[in-house]
Amino acid sequence: MKNSVKYVAFLRGINVGGHHKVPMAELKKELQKLELENIVTLLNSGNIIFDSAGESLSSLEKKVSEHLEKSFGFSIPTIIRKSELIYELLSKNPFKDVKLTKDIRLYVSFLRKNDNTKLKLPWISSDNSYKVIGKSDKTILSVLDLSISRTPKAMETLEKNFGKDITTRNWNTIERIGKKLKAGS
């Protein structure tokens, strides 16, 4: 494909708790119908690396989301980023100052649109179990401490402050995506 761009798509809400099942092999076949190339799925949670002609992110997100909804019979919100953003995120290593323990979880959330939240960052929950440590463009960085709260309201906090057009991945997943991107380039 001439002038192709490498992208990473993050699908929201598939294969969670036995609901909205999307087998990765079928997902790949459906994406090929959209003339996406070099498609690689990662994990079962809807992380896809692919190449496409350089069209706008919003039109690509809409095209993929609408096609998948028609194919699988339920809404599959899709947020797409250029691979450069993932490389940049990994090179900055935004969690380098976080003291890791077995109970610490590091998250990256992607917004479809830039928000106008009034949330002052860094933001810390009243019980100190959840912190939103930063936001850059349409990317939110957060830290969850499971030793303080086993039933955190982290995703509720994000949706309340940034809207429902959001999807979240564990930092380990972002690192795995980065490795796949490097291996494929």
What would you note in describing this structure?
The chain has 185 residues and is an alpha+beta fold. It folds into two domains: 4-86, Alpha-Beta Plaits (2-Layer Sandwich), CATH 3.30.70.1280; 94-184. It is built from five helices and nine strands; from the N terminus they run E-H-E-E-H-E-H-E-E-E-E-H-E-H. It has helices at residues 24-32, 57-72, 83-92, 154-162, 171-184; strands at 4-11, 37-42, 47-53, 78-82, 104-111, 123-124, 130-136, 139-145, 166-170. The strands form two sheets. A five-stranded antiparallel sheet has the order 6-7-8-5-9. It starts with a strand and ends with a helix. The relative contact order is 0.18. The model has no long low-confidence stretch (mean pLDDT 91).
The domain count comes to 2
Q: Strand order of the main beta sheet, please? A: 6-7-8-5-9
What is the makeup of the main sheet? Answer: 5 strands, antiparallel
Flag low-confidence runs: none
Q: Compute the separation of the termini in Å.
A: 15 Å
The 3D shape can be described as globular
Query: For the residues shown, what is the average pLDDT?
Result: 91
Helix content: 25-40%
CA-based gyration radius: 17 Å
Proportion in β-strands: 25-35%
| Topology, number of strands | 9
Number of helices: 5
N-to-C series of helices and strands: EHEEHEHEEEEHEH
Task: Return the structural class.
Answer: alpha+beta
Quick summary of this structure?
It is built from 5 helices and 9 strands. With 185 residues, it is of the alpha+beta class.
